[in-house]
Amino acid sequence: MTIKQAMVLAAGLGTRMRPITDNIPKPLVKIAGKPMIDYALDALADAGVERAVVNVHYLADQMLDHLGSYRRMEIIISDEREHLMNSGGGLAKGLMLLDRDAVLVMNADLFWIGERDGVPTNLERLGEFFDPERMDMALLCVELQHTTGHNGKRDFSLAQDGRLTRYGDGMVDPVVYAGAIAMSPSLFDDAPSDAFNLNIYFDKAIARGRLYGLVLQGHWLTVGTLEAIGEAEETIRRISEVAST
C-alpha cells in the first residue's frame, strides 16, 4: 500500500551532543550540510507521504521556524513543550492529529543513504510489506555491517517469514532497528495518556507474533554523539564517491 501520512519523532533533548545542542535542537544539527530531520522528511516525501506530524519540545521555536519552511508535504505540529512524552507517548499523542489510515513513523536522528535509482525506496517497500491482517507493526531493520554510528547492539532476530523476536546470545539473523515503522493508528487506541517508551508496543507485538521486519537496502547512519557527526560525514563522502565511479 502507498502510505500517505507519517509521524516524525523529533522532541528529544540531544544531551549526548552537547555543547552543539546547547543552542540548536538535535534534529537541526547538520550532517553533510543538511539538517538531520530533513533526511527523514525527504525520505517520507520521496515515498509519497503528503502530510506528517512532527513533535517538538526542546528549543521548539527553532523547530517551528524550520518546519514552517518545508514545502514537500504538509507539516502538523504536536506540541510537547509543557510535557515531554517519550517515544511511545509522543507517538500516541501525534497519531491523534492524523486519520485512521496506515502511517509511517520515523526518528529524526536516524537515516540512510545509498538507495538505488529506479527501484522502490525503503519506505515504499515498507509500506508494501506492511499487512495489517498479519502485523501490528512492520519495522525497517538493518544488518549490523551496514551501519555507522551504532553501538553494536543487536535489537532483534529476523525469522525467515519476517517475524521479529528480541535478540539473545547465540540467536541467528540479528538485525538493528532502523528507526522506521509502518503501522495502523488503531494499535495505539489503548495507549496510556502519559509518557511511555515505544518498546512496550514492540514487546506486545512480539508476544502476539505480530512484529515483522524488512531489511533496509543501503547504508544506515545514527548520529547521537559529537564523534558520530564526523563518522557519518565520512561515510556519506565515501559512499558518494563509490556511487559516482
Question: In brief, what are we looking at here?
Answer:
This is Mannose-1-phosphate guanylyltransferase. With 245 residues, the protein is of the alpha/beta class. It has 6 helices and 14 strands.
Describe, in plain words, how this protein is organized in 3D.
- With 245 residues, the chain is α/β, with parallel strands linked by helices.
- It has one domain: Alpha-Beta Complex (Spore Coat Polysaccharide Biosynthesis Protein SpsA, Chain A).
- Helices cover 27% and strands 26% of the residues.
- The protein has helices at residues 36-46, 60-68, 86-95, 122-129, 199-207, 226-244, and strands at 5-9, 30-31, 34-35, 51-56, 74-79, 103-107, 110-113, 137-142, 147-148, 156-158, 164-166, 174-183, 211-215, 219-222.
- Strands 1, 4, 5, 6, 8, 10, 11, 12 and 13 form a 9-stranded mixed beta sheet that branches. It has a 3-stranded mixed beta sheet with strand order 7-14-9.
- The longest helix has 19 residues, at 226-244.
- It is globular, with a radius of gyration of 17 Å.
- The relative contact order is 0.19.
- The model has no long low-confidence stretch (mean pLDDT 94).
Give the topology.
Layout: E1 5-9, E2 30-31, E3 34-35, H1 36-46, E4 51-56, H2 60-68, E5 74-79, H3 86-95, E6 103-107, E7 110-113, H4 122-129, E8 137-142, E9 147-148, E10 156-158, E11 164-166, E12 174-183, H5 199-207, E13 211-215, E14 219-222, H6 226-244
Parallel strand pairs: 1-4, 1-6, 4-5, 8-13, 9-14
Antiparallel strand pairs: 2-3, 6-12, 7-14, 8-12, 10-11, 10-12
